[in-house]
Queue: 2 jobs
Job 1
Amino acid sequence: MPVISDIYKNFDEKSRRILYNVLSAKTIEYRANQMISYSMGKRNVIGIVETGRARMIRYEYTGERTILDEINEGDIFSDMFVESDFSELSVESITDCTVTFINYEEIIEKSESSRLALQFLNNFVHVINHILTKRNERIELLTTRSIRNKLLAYFELQAKKNNSKTFNLNYSYTDLADYLAVDRSALMRELKNLKEEKFIKDVNKKITLLY
Amino acid sequence: MPVISDIYKNFDEKSRRILYNVLSAKTIEYRANQMISYSMGKRNVIGIVETGRARMIRYEYTGERTILDEINEGDIFSDMFVESDFSELSVESITDCTVTFINYEEIIEKSESSRLALQFLNNFVHVINHILTKRNERIELLTTRSIRNKLLAYFELQAKKNNSKTFNLNYSYTDLADYLAVDRSALMRELKNLKEEKFIKDVNKKITLLY
DNA sequence: GCAATTTTGTTGCATTTGCAACATACAAAC
DNA sequence: GTTTGTATGTTGCAAATGCAACAAAATTGC
């Protein structure tokens, strides 16, 4: 299933190339498990993941790791979204990736004269709105008061998105624990409880809500 | 400290009026504790709170109520930021409010020809980014693994914003507990520990970091 | 195919947190 | 000034969570 990215809405391949030329966009290839560091340090750079998957991760000085976001094909990331001097953020490729970098100011400048640039800016706004929605969801999950509630809230959200009580987890449990900011073993224990109490069924990563 | 709204950056009163005329903006007055319902139902409407304070509230299908955001003078709100079909959102005035409504599509259309509209769109992007940053901060706090760390992270953030190791809390401890999604008494206990271990000083709501 | 690495699954134990129930301080309302 | 209500501060106890350590299963790399 090809990912249709909102950032390219109403763009065909040709106009995309024209636009990228106008905006002096740079496309860079990354291997799996690499640091995507082009944008770091430079302000107002937008990265578009053309192919592949990546993650935004925060490393604590203690060595603790928190997954801040999944970045899939067609998703964008930007230091514009983060208070840069507060925490050590990095974007890491999961698979091989192709990433295009664009300077935001460039888009604004060119939007005055180029209809393509304006269309792209419009798409950008919609994409940020979508990210905002995702952040809101995350906050909802994190503000529930127990691991059980976090798990159930997460599962319900996935069910809603899949329009079905059955869905595949796209996180490993190790990662899910990081995402929900809880201890992995504690998460496993609670997961077991949920299964035993017939709240859910879990046939290797395919979850079914039983209520 | 006056609120400087990014949404009006580079706009004087005159150009703002011109722009609002071009965009067919509508300004509506609300009394305190009223539902600000103009935008509901219509997609892609942006509300700008010119004067007064309001709140964004989510009503659960269970009847549960959650305060999602404080909206102060100069802040904007929009149904664009929310997955509309999942939850029932509403904005309610706290004090008397003046709210200007603009249709986002209108901004895009007019941006092609009007420099003011493009400037406004640019401001809009920066405002959303700022909201995104606030959400990220909240997530940072929520993903730390203990009450102690949540408190310290929160205090450090405030210290940073105030550019000083001493600052006034603008939350009551009761509210702070809700904000950090922890039990209030547990928060008080940890606060006491932090004071006893000389991490912080707390002279009625004036906190000083001692490290 | 085999070795190396990562993820899953489990458990005992210590610590942290939440809950409930107070007393006290403070502020607002009458 | 008294009442009423809300915020602060405290504590014992039960429950939830994190930590550490391990075995088994699955996946990846060569």
Job 2
Amino acid sequence: MAKEAGVSVATVSRVINKKGVCSKDTEQAVLSAVEKLGYKPNLFGKALRRSETKIIMVLLSSLANTFCSSVIRSIDRIAGMHGYYTMVCATEGIKEKEEYYINFATNGLFDGIIILNSSLSKAEMSSLSKTIPVVQCNEYIDTKDTPYVSIDNTKAAYDAVSLLISNGRRRIVFYTADNNLVSTKGRFDGYKSALDDNGIPFDEKLVIYGNYGYRNAVTGFSDFLDQGIEFDSIFAISDRMAAGAMSVLGERGIRVPEDVEIVGFDNTDISYTSTPKITTVAQPHHDLGENAFCQLENIISGRHTANVILSHRIVRRDSTK
Amino acid sequence: MAKEAGVSVATVSRVINKKGVCSKDTEQAVLSAVEKLGYKPNLFGKALRRSETKIIMVLLSSLANTFCSSVIRSIDRIAGMHGYYTMVCATEGIKEKEEYYINFATNGLFDGIIILNSSLSKAEMSSLSKTIPVVQCNEYIDTKDTPYVSIDNTKAAYDAVSLLISNGRRRIVFYTADNNLVSTKGRFDGYKSALDDNGIPFDEKLVIYGNYGYRNAVTGFSDFLDQGIEFDSIFAISDRMAAGAMSVLGERGIRVPEDVEIVGFDNTDISYTSTPKITTVAQPHHDLGENAFCQLENIISGRHTANVILSHRIVRRDSTK
DNA sequence: AAAATCAATGTAAACGTTTACATTTTATAA
DNA sequence: TTATAAAATGTAAACGTTTACATTGATTTT
């Protein structure tokens, strides 16, 4: 390449990066050589020298979740505006894959990581943050080393359950998942404290567990119905679970919202493509993504960072009155 | 690192890559130094030297499509088994982003590309294939240089429409999109030839255009109904369009499948989460992904490649009799 | 006309690997 | 013993950049 233009590699570099001076003539010579050869600077040479790549990784468990893909899109947009590129790595819940993707990052492939969810322990998260800039988005572990951007899950659940209560419901099923995510824990807290504030006793039998999915909810909720436990409404921690439960109710001739009211979570497609449309808790995907990137850039640039809690919103649809 | 173990960099490299001989003692020394320092070989040094990264890129327009994410998962699984890692780049339909992701690839970041869909022209696709191994999966352009793995869209549509016809339907709406994708074109051909083979005249008025989405279909199909054109069934090129149309029919008191039968495409979530469940054309995601990767590996290893056409399957549900 | 300044460009080191080749050490054979 | 072979390890070049520094040549100042 340098030979083609008849100049030194240094000059080529200067022209391409518009750094330092050079004459119009050489600039032209280089530029046309670039054109002629279709020359593209090698990423590795550059990265090796600069020790930065301007690429950030977004790590999550599954691409299937449309809420996540929406957050990713926001991250990507703002990152692009700041000269960064985004690459998405889905672990599919496999620890090994998570490890090797993180390895890429710690080996220099990425300038930072935004973690939507991971199986990292508190200690691992903390030590990873010492190796490379990391911010958590949406789901998080509260370590002192890794900033997070999320919503107040407790308050969100509180609001959702309060809506049901204000509609006169008192036997509210909490359809949750058996895991230790902050979101799950927070939503459980919110559920309980809404009951509490309204003088409704907490009933363990109304808490059921699924895995966020639709199909699992169809069989799971069916089993619940078979137990004959009395209830008048459902608050589910995912729209898909809400939809699955609703479909079972439909099959059994139980009307929504007349007999049972339902509130889901995430405002995903299924909440408005199902019949009736499902009332749900919407998280601000756009702001989540944007703030996460900003925090990451703060770390990269050595600026001060902070945890960010964004506000949610209840989207009322036809599954509640 | 080399100093820590008290050996040369060459020895370190040999130990780590288990290449060439060395004594048990030095091996131990290196290994414990690795352990102590938490040493990770730098990806760029390695890539620069080897000119390979063992990473492949999957390029697509949007992560929102669950069919695509399912194909990606298959690619990823088989790639992992062959020592390759996968990274997903979503263009969101933005030409610039497509370009810079492709740049990463041509600059050495990736050993190959699997394109699920792109806005590349035939010429661009062809010339890209001369720079880096590329295979097209699912959606494709027929260039002589870039192998593809897909289904026979014409036959799939033919089968779907034949099902409707064999159920006695003759006024079949073709709900399609206004683009030049092979899938769209093929499905149109299949639709027409099924009509033809059954002596049903093609009626231009029964062809309507949407953008694959649910919301678009709700308004679009509503407009169609307002025109008062007589029809007794719908074949849509996406499940979401089928679901959107079905929801409009529901609102207007038109029964599915009694009054109108519907067939969708892709066997995505919405086809079984909507009520009634939608009959659809299932593509073999697993095989699509697997074959795409195998073809890519063929190119990388300089072996012979071929285009692959996999078979589809009609999944009968409640939107047809 | 000599000295000083400045613009344009080249030189070479550095980034962290891999690997052909050279060298050293150790074991074996004569 | 010494010569030879084999094993272990080191040396140095190469990959493609960036950049501090050096060099060249032209222009300006004295």
